[in-house]
Amino acid sequence: RWAAISDGIVVWSEKAPVWDLHIGDHGDRNRRLHVDPVLWRMLGDVAGLDVLDAGCGTGYLSAKLAERGARVRAVDFAPGMVEQARMRFARLGLDLVPLQDDCCVLASVPDASQDRIVSNYVLQDLEDLPAAARAFARVLKPGGRAVVAFTHPCFGVPGGPERDEQGALYRWAAPYFEERRCEEVWAGTHHATGERVPFPSRCTDYH
User: Fold this and answer.
1) What pLDDT score does 27 carry?
2) For the chain, percent of residues with pLDDT exceeding 90
3) Spatial CB neighbours of 67, under 8 Å, sequence gap ≥ 6
4) What's the CA angle centered on 134, arms 131 and 135, to 5 degrees?
5) 121-139 pLDDT, tens digit each
6) How many Å separate Cα 82 from the centre of its chain?
7) How open is the CA angle 39-71-32, to the nearest 5 degrees?
8) What backbone phi and psi angles, to 5 degrees, belong to 179?
9) CA angle, 67 then 68 then 73, to 5°
10) How far apart are CA 139 and CA 117, in angstroms?
11) What are the backbone angles phi and psi of residue 73, rounded to the nearest 5°?
């Protein structure tokens, strides 16, 4: 597992500056239109709450949580992402200090300390999902809530689905319930201009 973590730290740190172009201050198009409205509805009013942004990336969601009155703890395992988040918080005048931490461990987060956890498109990138679930449960206060969004494996089918008048059909080359590591190369789009922004290294996730 530590070899996978070290590899992930390298590739996500390499991607961090371009990822910041993709996400910006308000999220990419998918987050703005589809995911974030649901996250906010499920999080509820965060004013005065302790909220962990688990896998904060470049920090756009942490900043929005802070602007809504939450006491935010922002963590990411890639130092390149942590640095991008630090620069964003400084530019926005937010008193937040992102920390490098592994979502499967959350060593920097005390037990029963968080009212909410939000993890936006992170869990599919973790090799040890049960460990992350245990870490989330450990740091949540009694009655706390974790709100997570992650990609469904159908979106990783090469070439996309077969479509007809009845709908869409997805086919996998490997058994659907087989756990495996997946790698792909893809590009994002600039959050403001829509211009294609290729990532400098591959993307790894876990089916």
Assistant:
1) 94
2) 67
3) 94
4) 85
5) 999 989 899 999 999 999 9
6) 13
7) 25
8) -75, 135
9) 75
10) 9
11) -115, 115
Q: Is 193 left (phi over 0), alpha (psi -120 to 50) or beta?
A: alpha
| 3-state DSSP of the chain | CHHHHHHHHHHHHHHHHHHHHHHCCCCCHHHHHHHHHHHHHHHCCCCCCEEEEECCCCCHHHHHHHHCCCEEEEEECCHHHHHHHHHHHHHHCCCCCCEECCCCCCCCCCCCCEEEEEEECCHHHCCCHHHHHHHHHHHEEEEEEEEEECCCHHHHCCCCCEEECCEEECCCCCCCCCCCEEEECCEEECCCCCCEEECCCCEEEEC
- CA torsion angle 61 51 140 205 (round to 10): 10
pLDDT of residue 1 exceeding 70, the answer is no
Q: Is the distance from CB of 98 to CB of 74 less than 8 angstroms? A: yes
Token pair belonging to 127: 């090799």
Spatial distance between the Cα atoms of 54 and 104, rounded to a whole number of angstroms = 10
Task: Give the percent of the chain with pLDDT over 70.
Answer: 95
Whether the per-residue pLDDT at 7 is higher than 90: the answer is: no
Q: Provide the 10 A C-beta neighbour count for residue 92.
A: 14
User: How much is the mean pLDDT over the chain?
Assistant: 91
| 55: Cα within 13 Å, side-chain hemisphere | 23
Query: What's this model's pTM, rounded to 2 decimal places?
Result: 0.91
Q: Name the β-bridge partners of 74.
A: 53
